[in-house]
Amino acid sequence: MLSNNEYLEIVHQLCNIPPHITGKQRQTYKRNLKKKLTEHKYASKYEPFKPLPYFMNFVTRETSKEPPRQILQTVATATTFTLVTESLNIYRQGTRPTLIQIQILLSNRSSMVLIFLNFISFCIKPIRNSN
């Protein structure tokens, strides 16, 4: 957030742009000053974002059965789901899924997000046999 003097200085600069600054340079100068004023307005109006506590749980082939079981039990109480996907276009091979995000809205007004990263590896790579 800007101090009162800094705020007044920027307003003064915006109202009195030097005449030697013209064209694209003038537009950029003006845009930067307006951006500082906008950021000041939001900083004085709203508190900084503070995320809620969260935990991360990585599930791999070596993960025990308990974490996925807990996730499934939580999902069973869900009221709404949001699914977002992204894909990668591979030259001459078509598109492949690379990321899947599922947001699960729970009945207690909280949510859970499942993110499946590097989904392309998961789809393409075969599981190696121990034989």
What does this 3D model show about the protein?
This protein has 131 residues and is α+β, with helices and mostly antiparallel strands. The protein folds into 2 domains: 4-45; 66-124. The chain has 4 helices and 3 strands, in the order αααβββα. The longest helix has 23 residues, at 23-45. The radius of gyration is 25 Å and the shape is elongated. The N and C termini lie far apart (64 Å). Residues 121-125 have low confidence and may be disordered.
Which descriptors apply to this entry?
alpha+beta, 2 domains, 25% strand, 4 helices, 131 residues
Q: Which stretches of 5+ consecutive residues score pLDDT under 50?
A: 121-125
Query: For the CA atoms, what is the radius of gyration?
Result: 25 Å
The biggest sheet amounts to: 3 strands, antiparallel
**Element string (H = helix, E = strand):** HHHEEEH
